[in-house]
Design a protein that fits this description.
Length: about 90
C-alpha cells in the first residue's frame, strides 16, 4: 500500500515553498542509501558516489537544481503542445 503524502500546512504558493515541501516529504540523509537504481542522499537526489557525505546546505542546492531542471523540461514539452492540449492539462 502506498504511503500518503504529508499534509501541507497552508498552500504551496511559491517555488521556495515547493522545494521546502519536497524536502520534508523526502527527508534528509547525510549518508547515501540504495534507492531503486542509484545511490541517493540529501533530500532524495543522486549521490556523487556511494560514500559521499552531504551537508543540508549542499543537499538543498541539489534539490533546487533537480527541481528546476525538471520544471524546464516540462516547460519545453508543454510549449510544443497545441493550445487545446495545454488547456486540458489544467
Amino acid at each position: 500500500m502506498a504511503q500518503a503524502l504529508p499534509r501541507v500546512k497552508g498552500k504551496v504558493t511559491s517555488y521556495s515553498s515547493l522545494v521546502d515541501y519536497t524536502a520534508t516529504v523526502e527527508g534528509f540523509s547525510r549518508k547515501p542509501y540504495w534507492d531503486i537504481k542509484q545511490w541517493t542522499n540529501g533530500y532524495g537526489t543522486k549521490a556523487k558516489h556511494k560514500n559521499e557525505i552531504i551537508t543540508r546546505t549542499e543537499a538543498k542546492k541539489r534539490l533546487h537544481a533537480h527541481m528546476l531542471g525538471t520544471y524546464n523540461k516540462l516547460k519545453r514539452i508543454c510549449s510544443k503542445l497545441d493550445l487545446m492540449s495545454r488547456m486540458l492539462m489544467l
